[in-house]
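Budget justification aside, the reviewers requested a transparent look at the raw inputs and outputs of the sequence design task funded under Objective 1. We therefore reproduce one unedited record. The lines immediately below are the structure tokens for a 438-residue chain.
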């Protein structure tokens, strides 16, 4: 027997892999209901991860963030009450968007009613500090910088880079960044899943006064015909950023994202948001993840190892943007992410997807004139990898005996509040099925 693999150094009632909203939601709910449970939260990063670290915008209206194939409105509304009570986001305003909504409806577009809160990247970090302090105060063990290498669902043990740990129940909540790790766990546990959905799109950046809707609603949600939508709007101290990813063969690529600081920071005078097209792939494609990676790496090839950016004025004229003319009279603001390659995104975005995105841009400009100003920048690629759709055994996201999969990476949420709700929902399943220690 291989002792260093088979012998657990210690055992917990519940181990939670991932310290983002889903993992924290599960941990705190378990402890709140049964304080005697021994709970371990483990994360490969040396800091608490997840959406709370990036811009920290939270939506408290179903169905925003709730995949409707695994959430009803009754479930979403019920769990959102628990999430709001725990996160205590402060006052939220349901904005008056009647004028924009009327324009949108005339074009066959939905503009959602949302209660939302924006804390900013700096506010999110303060929230994380508060939550981690609460973990410690409640006696929940937190191990950062420890990487889970494998899961044995039969013996109920995990192997990390440091030790072997036993569990009664395991919650895996690695987020979108842990997409591939989650697939490994499912393969090891014999859990069937589908990997065929991916969001592909661009991030749009413009001067704030050309997108005045953000004065009334921080993150407006437009749903266009053809499966395209706006996502993750940032204003105030807003910036476009890039996120680094590595493929199994060691390849590197970047995906674009956006964030903003709280109103305590000086405004950049800019707005950015994503326009995403949801693509559902069919047979015989094996992996939406691999498809997304190939598109991203193609963009890196065209950009010399960098993401691409193009001004709307150049795109409309059918010409590439060039670095030496990316400023000037017509282009009246510099990009907040200059570390991109000026070029032609239409060479990299699949034509069908580009048609949907450009159609959405034109419709949005009809609702909010100014979107298609020549200086507006389109960055590519922005790709969201939450395509895993595991086969669940019950309503609490149990995918195997004593093994629960939650959060964006598992397809049970799309955003902070829904991820937190999915963690609570898994915790409810654990509590309903375990023998509580005396």
């Amino acid at each position: 027997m291989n002792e260093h693999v088979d012998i657990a150094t210690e055992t917990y009632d519940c181990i939670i892999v991932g310290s983002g909203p889903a993992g924290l939601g599960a941990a705190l709910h378990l402890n709140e209901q049964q304080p005697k449970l021994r709970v371990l939260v483990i994360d490969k990063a040396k800091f608490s991860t997840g959406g709370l670290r990036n811009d920290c915008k939270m939506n408290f209206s179903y169905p925003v963030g709730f995949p409707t194939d695994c959430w009803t409105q009754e479930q979403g509304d019920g769990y959102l009450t628990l999430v709001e009570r725990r996160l205590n986001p402060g006052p939220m305003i349901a904005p008056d968007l009647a004028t924009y909504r009327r324009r949108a409806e005339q074009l066959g577009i939905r503009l959602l009613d949302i209660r939302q809160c924006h804390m900013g990247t700096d506010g999110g970090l303060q929230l994380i500090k508060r939550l981690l302090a609460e973990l410690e105060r409640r006696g929940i063990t937190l191990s950062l910088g420890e990487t889970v290498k494998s899961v044995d669902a039969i013996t109920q043990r995990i192997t990390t880079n440091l030790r072997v740990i036993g569990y009664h129940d395991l919650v895996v909540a690695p987020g979108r960044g842990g997409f591939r790790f989650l697939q490994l766990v499912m393969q090891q546990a014999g859990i069937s899943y589908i990997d065929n959905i991916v969001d592909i799109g661009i991030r749009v950046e413009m001067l704030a006064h050309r997108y005045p809707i953000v004065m009334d609603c921080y993150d407006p949600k437009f749903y266009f015909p053809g499966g395209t939508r706006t996502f993750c709007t940032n204003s105030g101290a807003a910036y476009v950023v890039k996120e680094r990813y590595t493929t199994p063969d060691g390849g590197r690529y970047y995906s674009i994202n956006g964030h903003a600081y709280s109103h305590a920071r000086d405004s950049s005078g800019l707005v950015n948001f994503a326009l995403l097209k949801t693509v559902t792939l069919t047979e015989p494609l094996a992996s939406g993840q691999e498809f997304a990676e190939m598109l991203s790496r193609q963009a890196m090839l065209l950009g010399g190892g960098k993401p691409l950016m193009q001004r709307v004025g150049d795109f409309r004229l059918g010409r590439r943007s060039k670095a030496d003319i990316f400023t000037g009279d017509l282009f009246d603001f510099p990009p907040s992410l200059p570390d991109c390659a000026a070029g032609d995104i239409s060479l990299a975005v699949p034509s069908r997807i580009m048609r949907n995105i450009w159609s959405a841009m034109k419709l949005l400009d009809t609702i909010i004139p100014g979107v298609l100003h020549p200086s507006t920048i389109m960055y590519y690629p922005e790709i969201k990898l939450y395509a895993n759709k595991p086969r669940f055994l019950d309503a609490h996201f149990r995918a195997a005996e004593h093994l629960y999969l939650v959060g964006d990476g598992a397809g049970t949420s799309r955003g902070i509040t829904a991820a937190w709700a999915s963690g609570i929902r898994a915790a409810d399943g654990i509590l309903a099925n375990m023998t509580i220690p005396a």
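The chain has ten helices and 22 strands. Confidence is low (pLDDT under 50) at residues 1-5. Computational costs for records of this kind are itemized in the attached budget.
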